[in-house]
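Re: the pair you flagged

First of the two:
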Amino acid sequence: MKKSWQIGGAFVGLIVGAGFASGQEIMQYFTSFGLYSMVGAIVATLAFAFLGMSLAQLGTDLQTTSHKEVIYHIGGRYVGIILDIVITFFLFGVAVVMFAGSGSTFHQMFGINPVVGSIFMVVITILTLLLNVNNIINLIALVTPYLMGIIFIILIYSIFTMDISIAEQNTLAKAQSSAASNWLMGALLYVSYNIAAGAAMLIVMGGTVKDRKVAGRGGLLGGLMLGILIVLINIAMFAKINVIDGVAMPTLELAKQIHPIVGVLMSIALLGMMYNTAVGMFYSFTVRFIAPDHQYFKVAIVVIGLIGFAASLVGFTTLVGKAYSTMGYLGFALIVAVIISWLRKLPKTL
């Protein structure tokens, strides 16, 4: 069971920076649909649990050390190429969003120009990969329970300090920008881009164990934890929608409402999770094209990092709405392939 919890925790640690920490993602894909966001959150929880379990088990079945083997296994020679390209595109896209998110965090919390915050994240990400400081990544992964603790505090505060009616909350929520046409599509797109972004790591983690039940349980636990986080953040933001109206980093704003010190603690957690995700995605993207021991690997890290910084100047809120939606639609191909693979194996397990 310990190994299952490790897999689940690592899965949450990777995804939480890309899809949860700032609150902007939950806002655009859930909260902006008002009361229906609660139903969307439940749908997303079930989808995360199933897909997490399936991907981890695929990694175990093939005992792979690379996501490519599983992708070509479930997609075949031709569809596999498309899925490989999609996941590779996601890795770069999520890293860029993390650079932009760092800029928004610095601006909202400390009043610093967003460009400075983005440069900070790009520089420490590049330095980490150049120095190969793996221990730092492992330490930052410990921020996950710390972040969940702060989110729970924000939830309690939001519920007990509500000062408008549910009807008013619903109206205000629906006035926010949405990244999808309806609550169901919002939930599915959200799951799609997050799963596509985390698939590579989850598959490799599944390959580290020989018991598919242990791997599957890990993916399932990770998916359920992600779902619980969606529900908690969504409730907190819906309750205080009048406070976070139009804010780039909603969870940070709620933390600041409690006390400036809580705001600082939240900003540290946000930067830690964004750093963790940026390093993981950036590394996975780079090694897809050039081996870590290649003489030009470090040069590639710097060049790709600068390209990522340039792309991040589009802005965090815009990237969350546009880039993540595009990734979500493309990610449906991966979800369909995983479901078909699971259905093929179903008769053998019955």
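Second of the two:
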Amino acid sequence: MKKIGYLGPKGTFTKLAVDAAFNGEDKQSFETIPECIDAVQEEEIDIGVVPVENAIEGTVQLTVDYLVHQVRLPIIAEVVVPIQQHLLVRPDFNGNLTEIEEIHSHSHAIAQCHQYIHQNIPKAAIRFTSSTGRAAEIVSSSDQTIAAIGNKLAASEYGLRIFKENIHDYPNNHTRFAVLAKDKNAVKHIKHPVETEKTTLLITLPSDYAGALHQVLSAFAWRKMNLSKIESRPMKTGLGNYFFIIDVNQPYDEVLFPSVKAELEALGCQVTILGTYPVFNLNV
């Protein structure tokens, strides 16, 4: 039996994804994304599941930066789940929205519900937490007139009542979760149909090469390799220094990818494969 780590506590969307993807496994929560990734690196757990991108708020930068700058672990799978944000209150709350003094949740959840908060609870103070599960935990143990933004699992885990369902601003809200493990065969523990396959590359451009990004993209384009995402992040070595994360919608092969890598390295780029993996879309 594999030990699965996730961004906790109970009631987070990461826990929802883990429950949907892995059945009957030993599961352990971590307070932060770095703690979860470190646990995989130190082999305290076999598999780590962390959020990597939300359809509304974009990349979870902490996850990407930590994997690039601190701990290089292979991505062995991606799990995509729909996100439904609800306004959660204690069962004994019988007031109205205007009485809520504080709203607790993760920064991404707050941002996903910005318009609802602005239009309905504009005077409530915003309190950011490490996760939506932690926000629900805070509300459940407080005697103040406060609320949390989270999912139905959080409401169930902490005995809260859903005051208002689906308060996120856009209906097509999904989050991608990266499954990290040293053993690539651990992906076999996900018993779901594979939606597609993907390869993620880390590319660093030469600082003094005019038109380098155009030539990087051309290396994929003329080979008819479809890119689903390209994003720049700072190298943290000074202003103007960036690396690029590129998702290619196909598994790694021994023909196209080695030739792309050789072409880019000839331009002075550094190319690292962060993972080639299946993608699972789970309806939870």
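The two ends are 23 Å apart (CA to CA).

-B.
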